[in-house]
Amino acid sequence: MTSKVDPITLEVFQNALASIADELALVIMRSAYSNIVRDSMDYSTAVCDHQGLTIAQGLTTPVHLGSFPHAMRSLIDKFEGKMFPGDVFIFNDPYEAGGMHLPDFYIIKPIFARGRLEGYVATLAHQIDVGGIAPGGMGVFSHEIYQEGLRIPILKLVDQGQPNEAIFSLIRINTRMPESLMGDVRAQISACNTGEKGFSALLEKYGSESFREHCKALHDYAERLIRKQIHNLPNGTYRYEDYLDGMGENPEPIKFCVALKIEEDHVYIDWTGTSKQVKAAINGPLPTTHAMSYLGVRCAVATQMPNCEGYMRAISVTAPKGSIVNPFEPAACGARGIICFRMFDTLLGAFSKILPDKIPAANEGGSTAPHIAGRDKNNKPFMISGGLMGCWGGNSSTDGIEGISNPAANLGNTPIELLESRQPVEITKYAFVPNSGGPGRQRGGVALVRGYRLLEENAELVVRSDRRSVTPYGLSDGLAGTPSWNILYSGGQKMLLPACPMEAIAMKKGDEFVHFQAGAGGFGDPLEREPRKVLDDMLNDLISPEYAEEVYGVIFQGELVCEEETKTKRKYLKAMGSHKNAYLEHFHKTIGVKFSSWKSHSANVKIK
Length: 608
Description:
The chain is α+β, with helices and mostly antiparallel strands. It has a domain at 7-224. 30% of the residues lie in helices and 22% in strands. The chain has helices spanning 7-31, 35-38, 68-79, 165-173, 178-206, 208-231, 286-301, 337-351, 416-422, 531-539, 545-551, 563-576, 579-591; strands at 43-49, 54-57, 88-91, 104-113, 116-126, 155-159, 162-163, 236-244, 254-263, 266-270, 315-318, 369-375, 381-384, 390-391, 402-404, 425-432, 448-454, 458-464, 485-490, 493-497, 505-508, 512-516, 556-557, 560-561. The protein has a 7-stranded antiparallel beta sheet with strand order 2-1-5-4-3-6-7. Strands 16-17-22-19-20 form a 5-stranded antiparallel beta sheet, covered by helices on one side. It is globular, with a radius of gyration of 25 Å. The two termini are 41 Å apart.
């Protein structure tokens, strides 16, 4: 820390910046049109210094953490010396502009004082639809980015206070949902205007040179904090592998391989060995890989620190060009969200070898994102979207929690009442799924199920999900979670759909789409679970009595534990290992899917 900035003043300064970033987020939430932004809160905000370095980020979507540095560098490289007061920039392109995928619109405003560039306020929001072959922009079946929708290079959306109506018109005509998308764009612009006021007030309070000194001190402070935490870890290289379900032309599981190297006070994250890019829209541009790598380190070792770019100095990331985590243009990447979650799981798996009592088993695998889109009887477009809530893995001290967003996403729940009042859909079910949490001494969170019945004549269904064939891993002898399932009821028939269908699926009035989210992984030997906890789960309808006996080896008479019988049963299960398959059989029986329908790759895939 420089001698000119004392710790107390720096703390006040840091919190003032965080308040500005959070105010940006609140403006978007209160003025956005689409439910994916307004209710699910799939957006992020940031404040940057005069160099474009992030000095604060709003508390919204962690998956965007670390993407702003790429975006800001791209903006400055193209427009350095060509920015003026009143300018507002827009872009979304992953290859030219440092974006993550086309639905994510960056809208950024430079801030000037006395003619000098002093910083930026930045927003990123997931737009409900950007055109392209798949409604919602997240279908996995695109082979190239050209099929995915409107690519926007870095452009001036507002030029010295004057809106560029040509760009507004171009965006409006290239979406299925013009009213919602343009409303969200205006919400982002409004947030930037509000953030400019807060930034300018803080700048006026400190003065330009002192403001810059405080920014430098903040970066240095964050770097020192994280290096101190890393230094406490044992030196060495720790490897882990996890897998994404295969799809389309890539039927085999897609491997994610990470080597986590701790060297004194620095972390090296190397994704060499990860599968090559694929002909499906699940490739992750480099900003995505950096974002998830930074997030994994933050979650594992340094949760309490400033949300600024300084801590990233202690983290180096390697991602082979041409791999699924750093693809060549024009690889499709609209559904790249599912590889974000898999990178997160893989990196935390590596950290579990260093911090076994801190790292939980795998979460459900990522927010499933169904989109049901069409036009109503008045030819007005509709789109039913929004990720499902999920569940977290068990850890060394507690069960996994459920009914909450994946920690990498931190999304909000879209209430049933809002969906049904604004969209032609009936939510037929939204509930916990019994017998779905991965068994363990601390079990994984149980899965959620949600059903959608179409009330209009016709629509298209696009689904992005995962964890069908390679389920969320358990840790410390905990068992893996249960698989996800997509089921379509149409014309009196029940159809099992792939995790990621390689085409849009036609729906008719009265058809029902049901998604079972994956259950999270368990932690510790399930035969060591306290019988009282097994009883609580049974009384709360999270497991059945048969499941309690055949998976946890606990036998009840009414609500009383039969201790001797339980000891005998657990000894038998430990010797035979039958509980390791029994839980999956019980789960499939619960959801009405034949166990034989499930094809696991676990025999061919070794999780290290």
